[in-house]
Design brief:
Structural class: mainly alpha
Largest sheet: none
Distance between the termini: 28 Å
Shape: globular
Helix content: over 70%
Strand content: under 5%
Radius of gyration: 18 Å
Order of helices and strands: HHHHHHHHHHHH
């Protein structure tokens, strides 16, 4: 990699870390930066997932108090099992996918993630309006199945996984937004942990790019956290949505134009 590729990866990682701290959607910056730096599509996706892994662990740890109030054996453990199996399956599916096939899937995956991010606010309001509904103490078969599908997607690509998980948890009976965020953080950490281990063992991670990107994501996350109380959230979300649509159109043109 030359100096421009290094600068591109650091910049993409910085923007991704900052946006995840501010409004979410950091993958829209970090993943395309790896592609633009010449990293093969499958390796770029695996490297991006590993770069996001430490943040998922720290977020889950920060919200551990909310998780203690939830049933462990009847609810959290089955969900974690679904996340583990799905994350492993998605990671293996990515490794079995050729770079050419995955490159053709990129615009569709970005479009799906952009749609999910665009309509995440209405979904969150829908969940909030149900906050007074009774919650299920146990995880039913439908909740396990939906979480399995979300985890499969998360292990394979990851962008937009959080929004999918909100819908899945609402379907499974959770209605308190603070609990949903805590559960989402826990399950995301499980998915990223399993997928990360899979990618490392399979040798799919581009280590020089990963180390460079981590420098950017750590710095971006710190700066994003400092700016979180100063910048309007609406502007940041609109920026992520705009970039998501532009990237989707760009990769549709690249692949099918």
């Amino acid at each position: 990699m030359d100096i421009w590729h290094i600068a591109l990866i650091i910049g993409g990682g910085f923007a991704g870390g900052a946006m995840n701290a501010l409004a979410g959607g950091g993958t829209f910056f970090s993943f395309p930066a790896l592609l633009a730096a010449g990293i093969a599509p499958v390796s770029a996706n695996a490297t991006n997932a590993v770069a996001l892994w430490p943040a998922s662990l720290s977020t889950a740890w920060a919200l551990r108090r909310e998780l203690r109030a939830l049933p462990l054996h009847a609810y959290l453990l089955p969900l974690a099992l679904a996340a583990m199996v799905g994350g492993l399956g998605g990671g293996i599916l990515l490794l079995l996918t050729s770079d050419q096939v995955f490159f053709q899937l990129i615009p569709w995956l970005l479009l799906l993630a952009t749609l999910l991010f665009t309509f995440s606010r209405p979904l969150a309001r829908l969940v909030a309006r149900r906050s007074g509904a009774p919650q299920q103490p146990r995880l039913g078969p439908s909740g396990f199945f939906f979480q399995l599908l979300v985890s499969l997607y998360g292990g394979f690509f990851g962008a937009g996984m959080g929004i999918m998980m909100i819908a899945s948890l609402a379907i499974s009976g959770r209605t308190q937004v603070v609990e949903i965020n805590a559960i989402k953080s826990l399950l995301s950490s499980v998915i990223y942990s399993v997928a990360t281990l899979t990618f490392i063992v399979a040798g799919a991670v581009h280590w020089p790019a990963l180390l460079i990107m981590l420098a950017g994501t750590i710095g971006g996350g710190y700066c994003g956290g400092r700016l979180a109380r100063r910048l309007p959230d609406t502007w940041l979300r609109l920026l992520v949505i705009l970039i998501g649509w532009l990237l989707s159109l760009f990769y549709f043109y690249q692949v099918y134009g």
